[in-house]
Amino acid sequence: MSKSIQAIHLGIPREIEHGSKIIKTSIFKEPTENVVSIHSTGINGDTQADLIHHGGVDKAICAYPYEHYSFWENKLSQDVGSSAFGENLTLIGWLEKDVHIGDVFELGSAIIQVSQPRHPCFKLGLKHKQPKIPLWVKETGFSGYYFRVVKEGEASLANELIRIEKRSEHPTIMEVNECRHNPHATKGQLEAMVEIKELALEWQDAFRKKLTTM
Length: 214
Known about the structure:
Elements: E1 2-10, E2 14-18, E3 21-25, E4 30-31, E5 36-39, E6 42-43, E7 61-65, H1 69-76, E8 89-91, E9 104-107, E10 110-117, H2 122-128, H3 133-140, E11 145-151, E12 153-155, E13 160-165, H4 173-181, H5 187-194, H6 201-212
Parallel strand pairs: 7-8
Antiparallel strand pairs: 1-4, 1-8, 1-13, 2-3, 5-6, 5-12, 7-11, 9-10, 9-13, 10-11
């Protein structure tokens, strides 16, 4: 099954005001029509400002469904621009409800695997001048998601994102989001999340933490 890539975006750190502070962020990305090189921790030309919360093997590539753009434009009453969520890949057809943890995709000559949902941060609010966006992302589940790189390679807009392995026995991105943000998630649901070896360790640990409070 193949569906299209609406855009590829790259960004470098820039400084913005946050209250009385100046912070660095790479959430402002620009589209590119060039062939890009994909490596184990990301895409050449894309640099993260915060390596604690962004980047790394399990967050090598951030993707977001283009279908959600109209929802956010209506919600915010404004144009959200390109790379609205600071994503590297803006995708058409791959929604959170359709993509499973562990699904494997072909992207040009690279092979990538879904590793976790994107956890909303305050910088989304700064980008769109609306601090409630992280809360709204949790409520809707329109989070986008991350890929880890299984095989390095190159890709461009001429390529399609092709799912070559569907892990339907695993939860979808939407289901993982619902479990994490649901205060009434059951012990069984949380234990099932912890057992998914393809799920990023950060998310496994979050579910383990929830288990300790039960």
